[in-house]
Amino acid sequence: MSHLFHRESLPSQNAADQHPLPVKQQELDCRRWASVVRCVALVERALTQRRWGWWLGVVLGVMAVPLGAIAQNANFGTLTVSRGTVDQANGRTGGGTSLPAIVSDRDNEGNLCLGFGSSTPDFILEVTETLPHVVLQVNSNGNDTTLVVRGPAGIHCGDDTGSSKDASIAGTNWSSGTYRVWVGSMTNGMRVNYTLSVAGR
C-alpha cells in the first residue's frame, strides 16, 4: 500500500491550502485518488467551505439591511410628537390579522382592543418627552375604525369617538420612547382611507 502515498501522486498539503480547489473538483480528485485518508480530509474540507460560505452569506445579508429598517418598520411611516405639537399622516386600513391577537384583549385601562388590520404596525410614533396628555384621532369620514397602540406606556386601545364611528385614544402620562400604532377596521379586510393625527399636551 505504500505506493498509494507516493509524493508525486498527490498535491502537497500547503499547495492545496494556498490554492483550494472547487468543491466539485475536490470530489473528482477524491474518486481518482485511492488514499482513504486523503479522501476523508478532502470531504471534511469541502464541507467546511460550504458551511463557512453559508454563514458568510447570512452575515452579508444582515449587514445589507439598514438597522433602521429592521427596528422602525411601518406601513405608512413615522409620526413625532412633543408637548404642544401636532403631527398627522395618511394611511389605509386593510388586512385580516386580529389586532387583539397582536397586543391583548384589553388595554391598560380595561378597554377592549378591537378590529382587523396588518400584522405590521401602520405607524411608528416617536414621543420625544414624557407627556401628561396624548390624543390620537382617526378621520375616515365616519367609517368604523379602531386604534391599537403599544409602547413604553403600555397598551392603549380605542374605538368610537362619541357619536362618530372613527376611533380615538386619549392617553395620560405617556413616557418618551417608540410606540407602534395600528389603525384597524371592524370588518376583516375592509379598505378605508384615513388621516391619523396625534397631539401632545
Q: How large is the count of helical segments?
A: 5
Helix content: 25-40%
How many beta-strand elements? 12
Terminus-to-terminus distance: 89 Å
Do you know the CATH topology of the largest domain? Jelly Rolls
H and E string: HHHHEEEHEEEEEEEEE
The low-confidence parts are 2-12, 33-37, 54-60, 62-71
Overall pLDDT level: 79
CATH architecture of the largest domain: Sandwich
Strand content: 35-45%
The CATH C-level name of the largest domain is Mainly Beta
Give the neighbour order of strands across the main sheet: 1-5-11-7-8
Q: Based on helices, strands and strand pairing, what is the structural class?
A: alpha+beta
Number of domains: 2
Gyration radius, rounded:
30 Å
The shape is globular
Major pleated sheet: 5 strands, mixed
In short:
The protein is α+β, with helices and mostly antiparallel strands and 201 residues long.
What can you see in these coordinates?
This protein has 201 residues and is an alpha+beta fold. It folds into two domains: 2-64, no CATH class; 68-200, Jelly Rolls, CATH 2.60.120.380. It is 27% helix and 35% strand. The chain contains five helices and twelve strands. It has helices at 13-18, 23-32, 36-64, 67-71, 99-102; strands at residues 78-81, 86-92, 97-98, 116-117, 123-127, 131-139, 145-151, 154-158, 160-161, 164-174, 177-185, 193-200. A five-stranded mixed β-sheet has the order 1-5-11-7-8, with no helix packed on it. A hairpin with a 2-residue loop joins strand 7 and strand 8. Helix 2 (23-32) runs antiparallel to helix 3. The radius of gyration is 30 Å and the shape is globular.
